[in-house]
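Researcher: I'm comparing several assemblies side by side, and this is the next one on my list. It has 553 residues spread over two chains. Same procedure as the others: predict the full complex and return the structure.
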Amino acid sequence: MERIIAVDISGRHRHNSRYLMVCAAVSLSIAGGHVKQIHDVNIKPFVSDTPPEVVDVVQMIERTVEGMVGVTIVAEKGDLFNQSEWLSNSMFTASFKYPESLSERMGIEIAHHISLSSRNLLLDSRSWEPIKDNL
Amino acid sequence: MKDVILVQRRIPRCSESENQRKLAELRELARAGNYNVVQEVIQTRYPDRQYQIGKGKAEEVAELALSQKPAKIIFYNPLSVTQVYNLSEMCKCEVIDKFQLILEIFASRATTRRSRMQVELARLEYELPRARKIVSLLKMEERPGFMGLGGYEDSYEQDVKKRISRIKKELSTGQRDSESLRGYRHSEGFSLLSLAGYTNAGKSTLFRTLVDENVEVENMLFTTLSPTTRYLNINGRWTLLTDTVGFIEDLPHFLVDAFRSTLEDVFRADIILLVVDISEPVDIIRKKLAVSHEIFWEQLEKATIITAINKADRLFPEELSSRLKSIAYLAPNPVVVSAKTGEGLDELKDIIHSHLPEWKRFTLELPMSGESMSAVSWLFEEGIVHSVNYGHNIVMDVEARNEVYRKAKSLEKRLSFR
């Protein structure tokens, strides 16, 4: 059983002349073909006027995983502009890799759902429902 | 056996072992294509537009071709039409790349009409983007005018497109047939098992050992092209085991698409036996497993993966356990087997049995009558009968799937009310 931190960033496109991004990190234990346990979830929103570059992506991921317990950070190759694994790994302070097994991909899928839905929640003002009518 | 010269252009600063492995794979493919490798030419540089390798190296290959007189020159790197044209003009010999070699092997091995169509489709899809260029290169020295350049190029391309759509249509009809066959097999209570993995991992040997049959097995790439399905008894339960075509590294998209219907047998199975050759270096095993996982991730609906760690007889126990540890995160439900010696097959069957869809175990009491006797023989066919007692009534201890259980219970109710 291995412990990893699966990461995904949503919203890396222009929205009202800004880039509103949400990074989600999920700390989980995995076995060969399945996720055993989810330990912790961190979500962090980021805003930028310019499109994010590799260094920005690395920074966003590092700030989101801060304080989480896990041996290796795992993210999609596309998130780091398809650069080689050794290059991406050298840019992180923690150990980093691209997904290989089904369970690592499942972890990233979980992170993706979390980041996407939290971004939608933050962007949509109608999602803030009042508890009482007078609020 | 015809003679060939192999050529590999290596990317600067790429690892030596990786390059060696790729060249070895090309060597194996050439052997599978029934060729004899007389010379290997290697150059490390970035690609050249005209010749793929440098012009000087291309001239060197031409000199070799003149002295060795090979039937073909095979490049590891994909070649453009212009490169093929320039090289064959210079070497005065047929020049092909790895993908054309794979297509040749597929064509020579295709035995069923369906696999022949798949090969034809792959060949046409490979040819399509090159069609215009091929015609214009062939007709370069002709003058414009009647039957000259122009209309001809287009019509050849159109012809290729028409043939592609016709084959795709025919293949999709066949696909519907095989889907209904799979549905029928499921409704009959068979669980579907599939063997998957890289070429030469030992899938066919494992298949043969499991079903105890003489399926074609050779130490060669792409021995199996059409899927073969056989009955397999797993601790009393009948399943259908399918042997399929192996994966290959950097397999181009047009080939994957062409063989999708063959690979679909893998993706629609209830249980996939992912066969791994553990005697290979760990890095390569890891890479192959990662590619297999990627393919499964994109295609798999709902199936259990069991990793059959094959060729365990080639390693010492200590080495085997250290290798198993390093690939553990990529090997769900691992079982160490040796298809050759038969070691670990019982464990494999046990683990398959534990992942088969659950059957219900129940007791049935039927009155002694002709109809009950036919129900007994029906249950012997459809499930596992643990015991039968013929007394005043027939009492059976049966294990069967849900539909059979429901049918049997309603039959019991109907017969005992008479």
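Model: For your comparison table: Chain A has one domain: 2-123.
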